[in-house]
């Protein structure tokens, strides 16, 4: 055996017994092994197919090389001579076997743990191309059974997929941060803890499946300069920005040292519909849990790239009032806007109301805005999700509303560290409110969705998400991110007045349809677009 492992040859059965049928199952040291008599001697392997566990003793044995074993349930094929899986995914455990006199001997020694762990990680990455979700779960389970650190599955995943993110960070990062946080709370439940990790790995794999490598720039900077990093991101100069971020890590700043500058870059615009700020907050959360320098370096590279490519919605007409309002922010005025005005107004009107309260305690103004956000989500008019005759700009669904609450949680955390960012953060929440006001039914009866105890409701919801049943990672991730954000807000600031509305909004979201494919609407908009082209 490799690495000095000692062989453990055991007497399996009489040779005559095996020759009588050509194949035979034997149980040795808790292992169920099937032996095959071939012209080249005896071949031995696990009896259970590594795919779904069906008995390989019932399979076909032969093939072109005389050593191909086929599982007849799903036609997976294994070469017992070379050890290769010819059709299928998972590798089949084989055992050395030999004939000694009139007996058949099998070496049942397990390979060294390090070898098993390395193989499981390699096989995990091999499952990504076809996104074999069930195989990912099996490989992580094998890794942990061998004594490996299950988080190495995610560390290896981040390493292998980093360069395949053409535009940097995706929802996989914040989702993984929240899945790992939930996993820590599921002590003792092996299956649910595994589910959290498979969801994390699977999301990265899904977002990068069959992508080529988009290599990161390798430029170097002599020293870290935070202001220069922000400027490089604003100029969309990825080589310069990556070099500066790398210099910061090399200088030992850690993510904590970089985060204020990355947050400044994220909030320099109403950017990427709030994703940028969420990514800055949750990248640190994930890096902390992975606790690995290589993973941190990859996550920072992804985030810098995402900030380079972020859309800047404040530069489009709908949000053109944002820049001038921020520039005129004078810290004067403390009159809090009325909720109704925040929930129904235009972008420009809402931004003006927020600026009029610029002298108020930022957290007090924040609470008023988040109460408006929760109210808007609670009253989302589902007509807009199902309509087929609107314009592209009217393609609105539940996720447009969940984002403003998740964004609010992220910017509160970032502004606690960098208070100078509060004006931008508050006005950007206002951009969400102005944008979503059109799609609200203020007369909707929402009494059905009232939640008596928000903290308990959030906890129960989170613990149920390991069996969320959503095929799309993007949907499962929004369920998780929103619930995590609302629970964090509730626990951090239980006195805030908007938790009841937020919990009711989440309750309605969880129990309402989420239309994710719009065949007819897409067709109509395509026809209209082509006609308008002339």
Overall strand count? 11
Residue share in helices? 40-55%
Q: Report the portion of residues in β strands.
A: 5-15%
How many helices? The count is: 22
Number of domains: 4
Low-confidence stretches: none
Average of the residue pLDDT scores: 95
Oligomer: single chain
Terminal-residue CA separation: 72 Å
Strand order, sheet with most strands: 2-3-4-9
**Structural shape:** elongated
Structure class: alpha+beta
The gyration radius over C-alpha positions equals 28 Å
**Largest beta-sheet characterization:** 4 strands, antiparallel
Structural write-up:
Helices cover 53% and strands 10% of the residues. A four-stranded antiparallel β-sheet has the order 2-3-4-9, covered by helices on one side. A four-stranded antiparallel β-sheet has the order 5-6-7-8, with no helix packed on it. The protein contains 22 helices and eleven strands. The protein has four domains: 2-107, Rieske Iron-sulfur Protein (3-layer Sandwich); 113-208; 226-311; 315-520, no CATH class. It is of the alpha+beta class and 534 residues long. The protein is elongated. The longest helix is centred in the C-terminal third of the chain and has 20 residues, at 398-417. α17 runs antiparallel to α18 (422-436).
List keywords for this structure.
534 residues; alpha+beta; Rieske Iron-sulfur Protein; four-stranded antiparallel β-sheet; elongated
Give a brief outline of the structure.
It contains 22 helices and eleven strands.
List strands and helices in order, with pairings.
Layout: E1 9-14, H1 15-21, E2 23-28, E3 31-38, E4 41-46, E5 60-62, E6 68-71, E7 76-79, E8 85-87, E9 94-95, E10 97-100, E11 103-107, H2 113-126, H3 133-145, H4 151-161, H5 172-185, H6 190-208, H7 226-234, H8 238-250, H9 254-266, H10 275-290, H11 293-309, H12 322-327, H13 339-344, H14 347-355, H15 362-378, H16 383-386, H17 398-417, H18 422-436, H19 454-464, H20 473-492, H21 499-510, H22 519-533
Antiparallel strand pairs: 1-11, 2-3, 3-4, 4-9, 5-6, 6-7, 7-8, 10-11
């Amino acid at each position: 055996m490799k690495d000095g492992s000692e062989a453990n040859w055991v007497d399996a059965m009489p040779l005559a017994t095996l020759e009588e049928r050509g194949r035979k199952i034997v149980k040795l040291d808790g292992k169920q092994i099937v032996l095959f008599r071939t012209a080249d001697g005896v071949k031995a392997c696990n009896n259970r197919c590594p795919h779904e566990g069906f008995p390989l003793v019932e399979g076909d044995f032969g093939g072109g090389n005389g050593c191909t074993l086929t599982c007849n349930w799903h036609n997976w094929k294994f070469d017992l001579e070379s050890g290769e899986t010819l059709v299928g995914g998972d590798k089949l455990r084989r055992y050395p076997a030999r004939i000694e006199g009139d007996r058949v001997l099998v070496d049942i020694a397990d390979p060294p743990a390090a070898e098993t762990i390395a193989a499981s990680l390699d096989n995990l990455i091999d499952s990504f191309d076809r996104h074999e979700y069930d195989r990912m779960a099996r490989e992580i389970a094998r890794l942990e059974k061998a004594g490996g650190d299950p988080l190495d599955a995610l560390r290896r995943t981040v390493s292998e997929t980093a360069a395949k993110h053409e535009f940097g960070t995706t929802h996989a990062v914040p989702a993984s941060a929240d899945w790992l946080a939930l996993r820590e709370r599921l002590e003792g439940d092996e299956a649910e803890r595994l589910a959290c990790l498979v969801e994390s790995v699977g999301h990265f794999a899904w977002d990068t499946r069959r992508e080529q490598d988009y290599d990161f720039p390798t430029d170097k900077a002599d020293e870290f300069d935070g202001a220069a990093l922000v400027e490089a991101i604003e100029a969309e100069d990825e080589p310069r920005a990556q070099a500066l971020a790398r210099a910061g890590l090399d200088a030992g700043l850690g993510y904590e040292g970089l985060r204020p500058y990355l947050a400044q870059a994220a909030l320099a615009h109403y950017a990427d519909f709030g994703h940028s700020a969420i990514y800055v907050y949750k990248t640190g959360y994930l890096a902390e849990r992975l606790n690995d320098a290589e993973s941190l370096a990859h996550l920072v590279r992804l985030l810098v790239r995402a900030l380079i490519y972020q859309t800047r919605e404040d530069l489009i007409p709908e949000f053109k009032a944002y820049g001038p309002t921020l520039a005129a922010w004078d810290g004067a005025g403390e009159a809090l806007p009325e909720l109704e005005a925040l929930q129904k107004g235009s972008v420009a009107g809402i931004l003006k109301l927020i600026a009029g309260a610029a002298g108020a305690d930022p957290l007090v103004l924040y609470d008023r805005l988040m109460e408006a956000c929760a109210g808007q989500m609670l009253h989302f008019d589902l007509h807009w999700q199902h309509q087929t005759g609107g314009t592209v700009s009217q393609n609105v669904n539940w996720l447009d509303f969940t984002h403003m609450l998740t964004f609010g949680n992220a910017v509160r955390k970032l502004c606690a560290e960098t208070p100078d960012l509060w004006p931008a953060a508050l006005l950007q929440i206002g951009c969400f409110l102005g944008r979503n006001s059109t799609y609200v039914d203020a007369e909707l009866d929402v009494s059905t969705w009232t939640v008596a105890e928000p903290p308990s409701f959030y906890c129960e919801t989170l613990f149920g998400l390991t069996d969320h049943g959503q095929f799309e990672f993007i949907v499962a991730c929004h369920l998780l991110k929103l619930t995590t954000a609302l629970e964090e807000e509730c626990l951090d600031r239980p006195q805030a007045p908007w938790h009841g509305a937020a919990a009711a909004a989440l309750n309605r979201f969880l129990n309402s349809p989420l239309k994710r494919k719009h065949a007819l609407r897409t067709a109509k908009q395509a026809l209209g677009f082509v006609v308008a082209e002339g």
